[in-house]
Specification:
Shape: elongated
Order of helices and strands: HEEHEEHEEEEEE
Oligomer: single chain
Structural class: mainly beta
Strand content: over 45%
Helix content: 10-25%
Number of domains: 1
Number of strands: 10
Number of helices: 3
Radius of gyration: 27 Å
């Protein structure tokens, strides 16, 4: 009886070890791709790009030099496409082509008062045609992302007696119409306990 019970325990132990497999094996992906010694390459499509990337709105000061008033600080805004933060440190390569469409564009005027330092905006003075563009993301864009299109782009400036008028192009909506390519993630070994 003891021998039979011992033999049964040995069989159960062997089966449980076989079922666990290799713990250092990389996790299987639910997305079609290929594995290599460097990691896993995922195909990016219109159906899955939002799982790996995010489209953010980045606004930062831009300096314009004016002879009469010196340096003027105005804001410009861009739409930025980057890998999601949880993937940045895992990403080793990417090669992605993007096509996008910007709509609801217009020209507006920003009046800068050098005495007060205040910039005020006017309502749209002229509508802009829709803008269709293309972009390629490479491994150089992994950390900082890539500017897809300027949502608010200063175009020209007119220096007046008591103010500076800055003409800016603004597009309210942006849509990615096509996206395709690959992104490669490296693997990290799973520790054995």
């Amino acid at each position: 009886m003891k021998k039979m019970l011992s033999l049964l325990l040995v069989i159960v132990l062997c089966l449980s070890l076989c079922a666990c497999g290799d713990e250092n094996e990389p996790p299987a992906s639910s997305t079609p791709g290929s594995s290599s010694s460097n990691g896993e390459t995922i195909e990016i499509t219109a159906e899955n790009w939002q799982e790996y990337f995010e489209l953010t709105y980045d606004s930062n000061p831009q300096k314009i030099t004016c002879d009469k008033y010196g340096e003027i600080s105005i804001r410009s805004a861009q739409r930025l496409l980057t890998p999601k933060k949880k993937y940045v440190s895992w990403t080793t390569d990417m090669n992605i082509s993007i096509e996008f469409l910007c709509t609801q564009g217009y020209i507006c005027l920003n009046n800068y008062n050098p005495t007060t330092g205040i910039t005020s905006s006017t309502s749209p003075i002229r509508h802009m045609p829709d803008y269709y563009g293309k972009l390629r993301l490479t491994k150089d864009h992994i950390r900082q992302g890539a500017y897809v299109f300027g949502a608010l782009t200063p175009e020209s400036l007119v220096v007046g007696e008591n103010s500076v008028t800055i003409e800016s192009t603004r597009y309210e909506k942006m849509e990615i119409t096509a996206i395709q390519g690959t992104i490669t993630f490296r693997y990290f070994p799973v520790p054995n306990f």
